[in-house]
Amino acid sequence: xxxxxxxxxxxxxxxxxxxxxxxxxxxxxxxxxxxxxxxxxxxxxxxxxxxxxxxxxxxxxxxxxxxxxxxxxxxxxxxxxxxxxxxxxxxxxxxxxxxxxxxxxxxxxxxxxxxxxxxxxxxxxxxxxxxxxxxxxxxxxxxxxxxxxxxxxxxxxxxxxxxxxxxxxxxxxxxxxxxxxxxxxxxxxxxxxxxxxxxxxxxxxxxxxxxxxxxxxxxxxxxxxxxxxxxxxxxxxxxxxxxxxxxxxxxxxxxxxxxxxxxxxxxxxxxxxxxxxxxxxxxxxxxxxxxxxxxxxxxxxxxxxxxxxxxxxxxxxxxxxxxxxxxxxxxxxxxxxxxxxxxxxxxxxxxxxxxxxxxxxxxxxxxxxxxxxxxxxxxxxxxxxxxxxxxxxxxxxxxxxxxxxxxxxxxxxxxxxxxxxxxxxxxxxxxxxxxxxxxxxxxxxxxxxxxxxxxxxxxxxxxxxxxxxxxxxxxxxxxxxxxxxxxxxxxxxxxxxxxxxxxxxxxxxxxxxxxxxxxxxxxxxxxxxxxxxxxxxxxxxxxxxxxxxxxxxxxxxxxxxxxxxxxxxxxxxxxxxxxxxxxxxxxxxxxxxxxxxxxxxxxxxxxxxxxxxxxxxxxxxxxxxxxxxxxxxxxxxxxxxxxxxxxxxxxxxxxxxxxxxxxxxxxxxxxxxxxxxxxxxxxxxxxxxxxxxxxxxxxxxxxxxxxxxxxxxxxxxxxxxxxxxxxxxxxxxxxxxxxxxxxxxxxxxxxxxxxxxxxxx
Length: 761
Prior knowledge:
By secondary structure, this protein is an alpha/beta fold. Helix 10 runs parallel beside helix 12 (223-235), helix 11 runs parallel beside helix 13 and helix 27 (631-639) packs across helix 28. The longest helix is centred in the C-terminal third of the chain and has 34 residues, at 644-677.
């Protein structure tokens, strides 16, 4: 009788549980109802779940093993765990680290042992917010993960390297989930509105484009935030007379009023954000600096911490390029302490903007080279003439020979100050900007005289110097540091526009722009004219549109997408405005590196199409830059004569690189000939620029990795790929020269063209 009652009770319990599950599913939030049930329904995270990716293959093969899923809220960590649960043959259990304790963990482990012993069934244990387990709880889990009693799937919003037991991390594969892209969020929004089973497909709901854009933007890559906002908007909006629920921008703004700032003062967000802020200051980007500063302030970061980091940046990244930087930060910090918040935000922002706008130098890092020498160098005695003469001068001759700088012109005299064994060492390399840049040349001259004085003192004092002024090692401080790419390009830009006298009403057509660099001059100088920029790809247009947001709205150029293979598209897009304004022709057509890879016929078509858009006084300005040395030629220049087999290989590759060079140069030659054939009066300037490219492992890999563009080009010209032993020989030869400057020469060809006298446009 008791067994019958027990079975009856279990049946009633199961019925109630089933009914409870049905009720919960019906009342569950929209975000929970829309959770994907399979990988095919999963949105986003293509980098780890795309076709052929490791995790997708592991799930399909039911060989997932131990996983830790790391990422911000709302990106699919729990959903992915549930998908794995539905696809595995193992028993799936789950715990929430916020609610579970060691007792719950032991119960799951005991049950897993029973399943494995009695049924041979593996157990996969999902632990949400695994970083919330304390050290004791994580230690209690570790032995059962090690012996395979349970397979662990952990989910965490924190960096597992800092917040999860290192032993657990080492036994797990880590996958980082990224915030969802806007396109992914739009997919989820559309599904929520159209799905009749778990979404709002059975209702008539209209979301305006402006409202959808706002929801997607403010959600910030968080699917849960987006769906919760949509649910709130739908459930709190009354339908119209036609039964339609209309979600406009106002309702959307009320439903998702503010994007949550992801910021944990002890976690990744804290360190990542301050890192982004400091790097923005170092990179002289005031807009980015203000953004990251505002993010920290909004999240409640202590301004005193921000000031401390800016004080470090003033010394490390600005240093002697602007010695006032430290003073400004200190003054702003003192102002903040005096006025407090919220007015203290003014000096906080002032300090950040000053650092972002200041000239940069890290030359003070020379101190650490000096510190290294102190710890490692021998013979660090103070030179006799620098010693204190008041105590031992008469007995040992200390101080004899010291030259008093104030007794000499400019209050300086050449003499030895370093210990003899370190004479000629260079610890401070002044930058070329700001305060130290103004003193750089004089310092170099004085260092040269200093070395000469050391040679004289060697004879006078009898000290044996570790090296002489003729030692090539001492010439390293004479070498100028390689210029940054941005500075080099800016110099090239100035030469490109050299001699141009702008008129305020000039109109400029920029072809195939990849950045705004070449358009900056006309944008600034032609407020009454205008600039039209063509781009070759949609990605180029998107990038330039983002850059253009910083320009004055009255000087925004027009962006046109014109594929290089269809030059006729240029005229067709511009024809409407030319028809409306007969004076809307251009005064300049300019380009940097246009028409690469196009045929002669296509280049001629471009010349014809763009030339027809120029007015009577219109001019062309085209700049082509062609590298003169390939990797093999650069290696030959570095090593000189090599062993015979390598020498033969380098000669062959250098010859092939020369063929590619001819192909690259042909674009400039065809352009010049086409302009002449079209009746333009052409001038040409050519010059060479020598560069130094540091040879790194990454650069070698870029050249010699399987299927690299360089190897494929060489194989096409040879008619067959390089043999494996030849590749190995090249790799070894390059690797022996790591850190050395690889020579490179660019040949610049600047083509200028104008109409011949008497020729009409």
